[in-house]
Structures are given as C-alpha cells and as structure tokens.
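S1.2 Input.
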Amino acid sequence: MGAPPMWCPPPRAGCEGAPMRFYSVHVNGKRSALVKDGFSWPAFFLGPLWLAWKGLWWPLAAWLAYYLLARYGLPAAAQTPVGLAVMLLLGLEGNNLLRWQLAREGWREVGVIAAADEMTARFKWQQAQGT
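S1.3 Output.
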C-alpha cells in the first residue's frame, strides 16, 4: 500500500541559492557606486581601520574621541561593554555612513537593486544602463 501521495508546491524561480541583498546605486557623472544595505562586518571587526580605508574622516574623529574618553574617562569594568556597543553601532551604521559620505561628495542616489552579491548587482545596473 504505502503512504498516500503528498502535494508539494512547485519550486519558484529565485527562491533557491543565495539570499537576495539590496544595494543602493549612487552616481556621480558617469561613475557609479553600490552600497550594500544591512550590517557591515568589516566595520564591526576593523572599526577605525575601516573608517580610514573608506575615507570617513569625521566618523573616524568621533571614534578617536570615544577611544580617548573610554580609555581615560571610564572605569575598566565599563570599557568592554561600551567598546562592544560602539563596534555594534559601527556594524549597524557603517553602510549608512558610506551613503552619507557619498552624498557629501556630490553623488546622487538613483535607485536600489536586489541581487545575490555585489557583482550581480553591478551587472544588473550596467544592463539597465545599456552598457
């Protein structure tokens, strides 16, 4: 006899594989930049090095002020939790800081692309531009 046949929904295109991420598209003349939406692991783990690498000088100055305050103004027991909170804040807001920097430099945000990775997002953007 066996078990009765079960109904399974048909697979949907795009549901398998890597999860989709969103990238904001910024343009300045003929140049374009993509910034991933969501948590920034490099900003979380590398902190001030990541800020300097990306040219985020004002946030880097704020991080340095925090570091000096934490090092010399906080008791030792509070330094670790405050440090972790700052790392988490950088991870959560790192990509927004990049968007802010691009806007300050005259880049315009022109759209959002959903893609599995940055290379696919760039390909989709170039296809949309006809290049």
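S1.4 Remarks. The chain has one domain: 21-129.
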